[in-house]
Design brief:
With about 475 residues, the chain is mainly alpha-helical. The protein contains 19 helices and six strands. The structure holds heme C (HEC) (3 copies).
């Protein structure tokens, strides 16, 4: 028996070694540079279609640095391993993709490989973009190659050894990349397939909404169970959705198009940028996206419906209470039961005036009973909002909610957050509030949701100016 076992082990070792060797040898060739094509050589209809596709893929969001020129790159995309900087995808021949052929562009989208044959990192979500059809890749290419060329050399990445060797991505691709394009599932209709194609492909919703494994790949077994991105929690979009009122396709359509929805609130942080792009996409595409996402969420457990009905009842009562009492009286009533809680006092003084007031969304604050921010898995989003507020929407020129970073110290924020969780959700207390507050403070202002100047009113007599 012994020799047989030995022979087997030997074969396994040999196979693994051969596999590793194959990976190292199987490099992609460089694709020859081309003379930059003239902008007028592209079909205007294709360019126009490309504009909508760019919006679904958020190419502009990642490839534009804060305050920088569109598509010129240089924005840091943080990963648990270090920051990777987006590249210049304007048609500049020296520093952009001006010398990339259509084939080179398509290979980058489908396989995550650069024109010169080097591997790209999945901070560029090619594990999703691989599903994009040849036709759509061509339209994206047409759009990008007709932008204004910008000279902007690449910013060096900040990755530790051995991740700074791009070749290691060949192993990652072998494990986690399932090359496209998308193949329609004949068991479903065209609209459903369009939804999957856009959500899992170009829209790369899972890049933020699906948790990742230790190697930074999305957990396919936990698709849409919620993820972390730039200090924000991207809520679950499946049956684990923390939304007090369940989402349906109509609510999703409104939220994704306008960045807010009556019974769910506003899109903040990185999601604000996603929604900021999605108002540009065709109505049919939006319908397909919303339908597919709603389907993912609607496998809710039956006991959830009971909770939800309770929330809706309470919310309606709150609204009619506020309407009947005119101004802030309902707030006072609601807050009396917890008079001695520091968080309750802060809420009554600094928040209730707007969040229990008569103004409608998006300029008026939502009843906090309805927001996923309080029933969600971490305090991160709530803390981000309290500290830094919310920037203006298209409907309002001023920030719609002021930040309280300068007006409250960490202990006050923590007390407030603890109180809100207890009062406005049916979930147990968060255990890591102090860490959320500390992390949010140390990130300073996140670019996505910080207005140029954060207005800091004196919230109430109870929250003194804290030194930072
Ligand atoms: C989540 C952020 C993100 C989004 C969204 C994104 N990219 Fe990128 N992209 C990156 C990063 C980061 C890199 C650089 C990766 C690297 O250096 O390995 C990159 C690299 C590229 C490259 C390779 C260019 C080069 O010079 O190496 C192309 C082409 C590209 N992106 C096109 C697109 C297109 C088209 C879209 C929209 C459909 C898009 N990207 C959306 C982050 C993003
Ligand atoms: C760049 C990361 C990112 C991408 C890409 C992204 N999201 Fe989000 N999403 C977030 C974050 C972060 C939040 C939480 C924002 C907040 O608190 O307002 C969020 C919130 C949401 C919500 C609200 C959930 C709730 O219960 O309140 C919905 C719905 C949603 N996203 C759908 C989508 C869809 C559909 C896509 C793809 C088209 C998508 N997201 C792509 C980061 C992202
Ligand atoms: C000047 C009015 C104003 C004040 C004061 C204010 N908010 Fe807001 N808040 C808003 C508006 C407007 C929005 C955006 C609409 C919405 O989502 O409720 C918002 C959004 C929020 C959200 C996101 C809700 C969601 O899911 O969309 C939370 C959470 C929140 N505020 C908490 C607070 C807390 C806690 C305080 C007190 C420290 C506070 N707000 C003070 C106006 C205000």
């Amino acid at each position: 028996m012994r020799p047989l076992k030995f022979a087997l082990a030997f074969c396994v070792v040999l196979a693994v070694a051969a596999g590793i060797l194959a990976i190292i040898i199987a490099r992609w060739p460089a694709i020859a540079p081309i003379a930059p094509p003239a902008a007028n050589s592209f079909d205007p209809a294709s360019v126009k279609r490309g504009a909508a596709l760019v919006a679904i893929g958020n190419c502009d969001v990642c490839h534009t640095a804060p305050g920088g020129r569109a598509f010129a790159g240089g924005r840091a995309v943080p990963t648990p391993f270090g920051s990777i900087y987006s590249t210049n995808i304007t048609p500049d021949p020296e520093t952009g993709i001006g010398r990339w052929s259509k084939a080179a562009f398509q290979r980058a989208m489908r396989f995550g490989v650069r024109r010169d044959g080097a591997y790209l990192y999945p901070a560029f979500p090619y594990d999703h973009f691989t599903l994009v059809s040849d036709d759509d890749d061509n339209a994206l290419y047409a759009y990008l190659m007709t932008r204004t060329p910008v000279r902007a050399p690449p910013v060096p990445d900040r990755l530790p050894f051995p991740l700074n060797i791009r070749l290691v991505m060949s192993g990652w691709n072998l494990l986690f990349l399932h090359p496209g394009p998308y193949r329609a599932d004949a068991a479903h209709d065209a609209a459903w397939n369009r939804g999957v194609y856009l959500v899992d492909g170009l829209g790369h919703c899972g890049a933020c909404h699906t948790p990742r494994n230790l190697l930074g790949a999305e957990r396919t077994d936990l698709k849409f169970s919620g993820g972390e991105v730039e200090g924000w929690t991207a809520y679950a979009l499946n049956e684990l959705s923390p939304a007090p009122v369940p989402w349906n396709a109509a609510a999703l359509r409104h939220y994704l198009r306008y960045g807010w929805e009556d019974s769910h609130g506003v899109a903040r942080g990185p999601m604000a940028e996603v929604a900021g792009d999605l108002h540009l996409i065709p109505a049919d595409d939006m319908r397909a996206i919303a339908m597919y996402v709603a389907e993912q969420m609607n496998h809710a457990a039956p006991e959830r419906d009971v909770v939800v009905q309770g929330v809706e009842r309470q919310h309606q009562r709150g609204q009619s209470g506020a309407a009947a009492s005119g101004d802030g009286q309902a707030n006072a009533l609601r807050a009396t039961d917890t008079k001695n809680d520091e968080g309750a006092v802060t809420y009554a003084g600094a928040c209730a005036g707007c969040h229990e007031g008569p103004r409608a969304l998006p300029d008026g604050g939502i009843d906090l009973m309805l927001t996923s921010a309080i029933g969600g898995p971490s305090a991160n989003n709530l803390v981000n909002i309290v500290l830094y507020g919310l920037p203006a929407t298209e409907a309002a020129r001023a920030p719609i909610m002021p930040g309280f970073a300068g007006a409250m110290n960490d202990a006050q924020v923590a007390a407030l957050v603890r109180y809100l969780r207890a009062r406005f959700s049916d979930k147990g207390p968060w255990t890591d509030i102090a860490k959320s507050v500390h992390d949010a403070r140390s990130r300073a202002r996140f670019p996505a949701a910080s207005p140029a100047s954060v207005v800091e009113p004196t919230p109430s007599g109870t929250a003194q100016q804290a030194s930072q």
